[in-house]
Design goal:
Elements lengths: L1 E7 L3 E8 L13 E8 L2 E8 L3 E6 L3 H13 L12 E8 L10 E2 L2 H9 L8 H15 L3 E6 L9 H4 L6 H4 L9 H15 L7 E7 L3 E7 L2 E5 L20 H10 L4 H10 L2 H6 L5 H9 L3 H25 L4 E5 H6 L1 H8 L11 H4 L6 E2 L8 E4 L4 H12 L1
Parallel strand pairs: 1-6, 6-8, 9-12, 12-14
Antiparallel strand pairs: 1-2, 2-3, 3-4, 4-5, 7-8, 9-10, 10-11, 13-14
């Protein structure tokens, strides 16, 4: 079975073509074709890679035309990997917000499309882009089966006392609650952790730290997310690259009243000009923050210290939800690539008997346990593979 995956973000898109034979393999295979698109003003920057070829090109085209270009590259030119588009069996899409309506992946129908459109008010930067991908596939591949894999689905069983905000009770009927995000990554990493450790997922209490430009934690018990840091939107919880994370809501009232902020100004401030970028004044990229710290930049050091404090703070909250911890996981860009962040976080939890193996921590670990042999808590660094998780969901539904 050949599965095409479209993982669309607000400013970029990753696409992969996987081939799965009779069963899902134990270890994730490499895609037979992959593509990345960065949407820039008036241009799409495209990178396509196969086992035998690489292609980089800038094209001036609409969203639909760009996807058509990618589809054509599957069976034409130097990046050709199939003879005919009819060889593709199913297309899987990451859809950011499934609301309360979708607690698992679904085959896309017109009713599903309509609901995703309605939920766009909850994820205005993402759901409309996800819909564009679905529509482009309909346009260029006809009535091929498509599957929606929701970023919120993994968190859909979080208990009400952790999901309902302590505001007006009427919010519940209005759909205002903690949804959580990064669910595809959290699901993949927790399942991968069980395989790496050779243990049943139902026997493990895990905290997954998804630390990229966006950051969130998930507390997982019996294979299910029971608590998470992102809330009604992806703005809640941890300090992030350019997002503030949780702040005193009274501060927002103050800014609206005293500084004449508009909702649009607040949106831009909290989502694009806060976090590591806002505090450091340098960048939202952890690598640049650490580089500035090494040169004595005090604001960069403050940004790092706040970031680590918030991580430790929320890991503590997840610990309480789980009532213990067997496995701590680090994933995504910062989680996978920053030994400094991993060390700074883990240092605070020595009281749990958590001990790092410093050599493993600094040796570019991938899908391994970096805890010391005597550590009572396993510490895994896992390369998250959302696209593969989407492909697996498609395989299950085909």
């Amino acid at each position: 079975m050949k599965i095409l995956v479209l993982n669309a973000g607000s400013s970029s898109q990753k696409s992969c073509l996987y081939e799965i034979q009779d069963n899902i393999p134990e270890n994730p295979p490499k895609p037979i074709w992959s593509a990345q698109v960065e949407w820039r003003p008036e241009v799409a920057k495209i990178k396509i890679k196969t086992a035998t070829a690489e292609l980089q090109q800038d094209i001036s085209a609409s969203h639909s035309e760009t996807i058509a270009y990618l589809i054509d590259s599957l069976h034409q030119g130097t990046t050709k990997v199939i003879n005919d588009l009819s060889e593709i069996d199913v297309v899987g899409h990451r859809v950011v917000h499934g609301g309360k309506e979708y607690q698992s992946s679904v085959v896309i129908t017109q009713a599903v499309i309509d609901t995703i459109q309605q939920l766009a008010t909850l994820a205005p930067a993402h759901n409309p882009v996800n819909l564009k991908g679905i529509e482009a596939i309909q346009e260029h591949l006809g009535d091929i089966k498509q599957v929606a894999v929701f970023d919120t689905a993994f968190h859909s069983h979080i208990p009400d006392e952790k999901a309902i905000f302590s505001g007006a009770y009427e919010w519940v009927s209005q759909g205002i609650r903690r949804y959580g995000f990064h669910g595809i990554s959290h699901q993949y990493c927790t399942q991968r952790a069980a395989k790496i450790l050779g243990q049943n997922l139902d026997s493990l209490r895990l905290i997954n730290c998804h630390l990229g430009n966006g950051c969130s934690l998930a507390a997982v018990k019996n294979g299910r997310s029971i608590d998470t840091t992102m809330g009604f939107t992806p703005l809640d919880g941890l300090m992030m690259g350019s997002r503030s994370g949780a702040i005193d809501p009274g501060l927002l009232i103050h800014l609206l009243r005293q500084e004449n902020y508009t909702p649009e100004t607040l949106d831009n401030l909290l989502n694009k000009s806060s976090g590591l970028l806002g505090i450091s004044g340098i960048s939202g990229d952890m690598r640049q923050i650490l580089g500035a710290i090494s040169q004595g930049n005090e604001r960069a050091k403050l940004a790092y210290d706040i970031y680590i404090h918030r991580l430790r703070y929320y890991i503590g909250a997840m610990l309480a939800s789980l009532q213990g911890l067997d496995v701590l996981i680090f994933t995504a860009g910062v989680g996978e690539n920053s030994p400094d962040v991993r060390f700074s976080v883990c240092e605070a939890f020595g009281f749990l008997g958590l001990l790092l193996d410093n050599q493993k921590n600094h040796n570019h670990p991938v899908d391994i346990n970096i805890a010391a042999p005597e550590s009572k808590v396993k510490v895994l660094v896992i390369h998250t593979q959302e696209d593969w998780q989407i492909a697996c969901e498609c395989f299950k539904l085909h």
